[in-house]
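so my prof wants the structure for this chain in the C-alpha cells format not the other one, which i didnt know existed until like an hour ago. anyway here's the sequence
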Amino acid sequence: MPTKDKKNSAFMRPVQVSESLQEIVGKGPMPRTEVTKLVWAYIKKHNLQDKKNKRMINPDAKLGKVLGSAQIDMFKMTSKISTHLKDTAAVAK
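here's what i got, hopefully its the right format
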C-alpha cells in the first residue's frame, strides 16, 4: 500500500516548462507545485483576477500565450498549464 510520502513525490518531481510558460515562472525544471505558486504570484502581481469575480482570470499578453486570451476560470487554468509541462523522465528518454 503506498504511503502518503509516495503520493506527494509525484507532485514534487521536476517537470520541464514550455518556453511560453518560462516567461512567467522562469527556467525549469521545477516541481508542479512551484509552477502553480509562481503563476499565482504573477497573476496577483499584475492584478489579473477579475475585480468582481475573483475566480476568473483576465490573461495579459504573456499569460495569454499559456491560457489563451479569453477570460478563464481559475479551476480550468490548471489543465491549460499542464499542457505546457513535460515530465523530465519522458524528456530524458
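also thought this was worth mentioning. The beta strands are 14-17, 30-31, 56-57, 72-73, 85-87.
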